[in-house]
Amino acid sequence: MIEGVEWFVRTSIEYGTPLLLAALGEVYSERSGVLNLGLEGLMALGAAAAVAFSIATGSPWCGMVLACLLAALLALVHAIVSVILRGNQIVSGLALTIIGIGLSSIVGSNYVGLRGNPITSVIEIHALNRIPVLSGLSGLDPVAYFTMVTAIVLWLVLFKTSVGLKIRATGEDPSVVEAMGHSVRTIRFLTVVFGGAMAGLAGSYITLVLSPGWYEGIVAGRGWLALGIVIFASWSPLRALLVAYLFGGLMQLRFVLAPYLGVGGVLLKGLPYVLVIVILALLSVESMRKKIGAPESLGKPYPPG
Amino acid sequence: MRELSSIARKAVGSHRKALSYTMPVIATLIAFLIYSTLLYMSYGIDIGKLLNSWKDTLFTVGGWKRSLTRTLPILMPAVGLTLAFRMGFWNIGAEGQLLMGLLAGSGVAIFLAERLPQAVALLLMFIAAFSTGALWALLPAYLRGRLNVNEVLTTLMLNYVAASVFDFVVRGPWRDPSAYGFIKSPPLPEKTRLDVLIGFSLAALFAAAVYILQNYTVFGFEVRVVGSSYEVARAIGISYIKTAIKVMAMSGGLAGIGGLLISTVMTGVLMESARMTPGYGYTAIIAAWLARLNPVATVLSSFFLGFITDVGVLLETVYRVPASSIMVFEGMLLLAVVVSEPLEKKLKAL
């Protein structure tokens, strides 16, 4: 029983990690005022590129870094369209998703069905190994730990440094930031590209760690879930960590329950998405809305008009 | 971009009207160039081979029929989406609404049609498809109208929920046990099948109807007012939630009919969701925007995209290039629409 719980903790974190990585990047870009609906496509591109490059270079780590860069490059398009040209962020983001999925099919087409060159190393934390349940936190892959640390660092940067203050101010009232002599465009540009890199990393985690190998559709809506997670986490990297692991647990619940459900197991696939809708509805109740507060200028181009 | 705008300016002089027609053409050419370069770099397919595969679709009767067949599930949702987008309601859920309509309409065909006269059966199928698609679209409308829940996410999430419901039904209760290892339903009876031209005429009729609704009725006026300003709409007594519910019922319903046309015109049987639609509901979003939210123009844009989709499939069978690679081209077209709006503003100011 205890082993079951430990296994559940570990897999929840593994399934939650790509969600968290993508959500962290999106927290930054939304905090600066830019909505990026391209996450799903960026993750797909990252996922395919990671497999391709990990095989081509012989190193999964090189593959991961290159996947990151490629996704950042694609996010650059969204940055140019929505920040520089001030086009509609929703349509631009959707276009990015469509392009990303298309590109991923090209990049990955020679690698369908191959296991690729996955990351197999794990880090044992011996102090945790003797504690029941918590030992589930030991023996994860390095990227999962890196992601936890990143969440904390990003939280610190966002709320405890002047850089973070600038980013948050840009999302709330860009005219103030401009008046202080900073460039709203530069800040937004950088957060969007950063968000792209994180989404690329998230995608590469899926194909290099979670379920090695590439096939079309492997991202399976995780990019959209990440967008939901950003809202539940009320744009905080630390809360995103908790919410993402919760959703990670939910995503693999169907593997736990599958033996008991037979063909009904496929219905559980829809469960995380139903939950997003339910939570969104709950969060929208007036008293809650005041507490969470989306960035005031989210989705609005600057300068306006 | 500056280069692009100067080319556009030279090309069209000061004729603003001409501008809105030249921009899409230029954008399409640029998108095509980028896409073909990509194919050349990745698969060594040069532009000649690529154009050849366009020829196979464009200049054969079979090619036209295939393109038209693929046009239907793009056109029907696109027509409905023009309404939703005009009121500023971001319905990204056409894919799910389409799947639910496909499921319900085909269900009527498979399990009830045998005992009914053909006309009644067809009518029931369309009613089932429309109302199920509409129902699936109502929740986001209600949540947005009542609780101000972001409709982009709710409509999107429901796509995945719809796919899992669809797959559950097709794998479980409706699975044809006599189909051996294949996951599919019993076939739709012959009398419930429609010819592609009938399907297309029907879809064109819906497009015309929505065009009239949008431009010559009070309801169409209300939709546009809500779309241009939420405050103005409230000031003159237009209820947001009522408009949203009506618009989404129509948008979802039309997408549902688009779904039904997949089985009655194309496949004749239900399979798993991924095999029924390569994302027609998402392509419909592109079709609606390419048509600049004009329902009649969606007939053209949807046909164009149906044609493109068919070329994508040909590329896969002939050159083993994944069919989804064509999405790169489609996505760039959508991007061009986004870019052209602020660019046009700038050009007009020159």
TrEMBL record, chain A:
The keyword Membrane applies. It is a multi-pass membrane protein. It is found in: Cell membrane. The chain crosses the membrane at residues 37-57, 63-85, 92-112, 142-159, 189-208, 266-285. One of its GO terms (molecular function) is transmembrane transporter activity. The keyword Transmembrane helix applies. One of its GO terms (cellular component) is plasma membrane. Keywords: Cell membrane, Membrane, Transmembrane, Transmembrane helix. Pfam families: BPD_transp_2. This is ABC transporter permease. The lineage of its organism: Archaea, Thermoproteota, Thermoprotei, Fervidicoccales, Fervidicoccaceae.
From TrEMBL, chain B:
It comes from the Archaea. The keyword Ubl conjugation does not apply. One of its GO terms (molecular function) is transmembrane transporter activity. Keywords: Cell membrane, Membrane, Transmembrane, Transmembrane helix. It is a multi-pass membrane protein. It is found in: Cell membrane. The keyword Transmembrane helix applies. GO terms for cellular component: plasma membrane. The chain crosses the membrane at residues 21-43, 71-89, 96-113, 119-139, 194-213, 247-270, 282-307, 319-339. PANTHER family: ABC TRANSPORTER, PERMEASE PROTEIN, GUANOSINE ABC TRANSPORTER PERMEASE PROTEIN NUPP. This is ABC transporter permease.
